[in-house]
Amino acid sequence: QVQLVESGGGLVQPGGSLTLSCEASGPMFIAYTMGWYRQTPGSERELVADIAPRGETTYADSVKGRFTISRDNDKNTVSLQMNSLSPDDTAVYYCHKEVHPTFWKSGRPGEPPAWGQGTQVTVRS
Questions:
Q1: Cα(123)–Cα(70) distance, rounded to whole angstroms?
Q2: Which of 37, 54, 87, 116 could form a disulfide with 6 if both were Cys (CB 3.0 to 4.6 A apart)?
Q3: For residue 106, what pLDDT is reported?
Q4: pLDDT tens readout for residues 83-114
Q5: What whole-number distance in Å separates Cα of residue 52 and Cα of residue 54?
């Protein structure tokens, strides 16, 4: 069973930076779109950024130009570099994976998406 283990959260001052990392266990890391989502109390989980197997990226408008997602397919890791952090970025950040459509079989992904346990990011003075 593939597991996702996040690290790198913490407390940072406004304007500061943090890097989140997620390590995935299990085979065929290259088959997955990897992403970061975040959630605050009372709100739905929202996409922050994701990265397809070959490196295509998607970002939420609120983080464009400040956050950078990257992946290392040899180390089975995905990272999120967060710069110019503001209190609005305070949330629990979750690593996410889902099978990229390129790797679907018979029109199906073959397994459900998976989530990490979450890591808290707090931005305050």
A1: 22
A2: 116
A3: 87
A4: 999 999 999 999 999 999 989 888 888 888 99
A5: 6
Of 65, 74, 57, 59, the C-alpha closest to 23 is 74
With a CB cutoff of 8 Å and minimum separation 6, the contacts of 117 are 4, 5, 6, 94
d(CA 118, CA 5): 8
DSSP character string of 53-90:
TTS-EEE-GGGTTTEEEEEETTTTEEEEEE-S--GGG-
Which amino acid belongs to residue 74?
D
Q: How far is CA 37 from the centre of its chain?
A: 6
Q: Which two tokens stand for residue 17?
A: 């930076």
Q: End-to-end CA distance of the chain: give it in Å, rounded.
A: 40
For the chain, residues with pLDDT lower than 50 are none
In single-letter form, the type of residue at position 39 comes to Q
